[in-house]
Amino acid sequence: MKISIKSNLIIMLIFITIVLSAPIWGKVIGAAYPDLLQKFAIFALFAIGFNILFGLTGYLSFGHATFLGVGSYTAVWMFKLFSMNVLPAIILGTLMSGVFAYIIGYLSLRRSGIYFSILTLAFAQMAYSLAYSVLTPITNGETGLQLSQQDPRYLDALFGVAVSDGLPSTNFFGLSMSGYSGFYFCAVILIIGFYVSLKIFRSPYGLKLTAIKSNQKRMKYTGFNTRPYLLSAFMISGMYAGLAGSLMAVTDPLAGAERMQWTASGEVVLMTILGGAGTLIGPILGAVIIKYFENIFSALNTAELHSIFSFMPKFMENIFVFITNPFVGDGWHLMLGVLFMLVVIFLPGGVLEGLGKVTNLFKRILGFKSTKQGASKGESS
Amino acid sequence: MSYILEIKGVNKTFGGLHALADVNLQIEEGETHAIIGPNGAGKSTLLNCCIGRLIPDSGSVTFNGKNMIGMEAHDINHAGMVRVFQTPEIFPDLSILDNVMIPALAKRDGTFTFNPFKKMADQHDIHDEAMSILRDFSLDDFADHIASSMSRGNKRRLELAMGLIQHPSLLLLDEPTAGMARHDTNNTIELLKEMKRQHGTTKVIIEHDMHVVFSLADRISVLARGHIIATGTPDDIRNDPKVKEAYLGESEDE
Question: Burial level of B62, CB count in 10 A (0-12/13-18/19+)?
Answer without folding.
Answer: middle
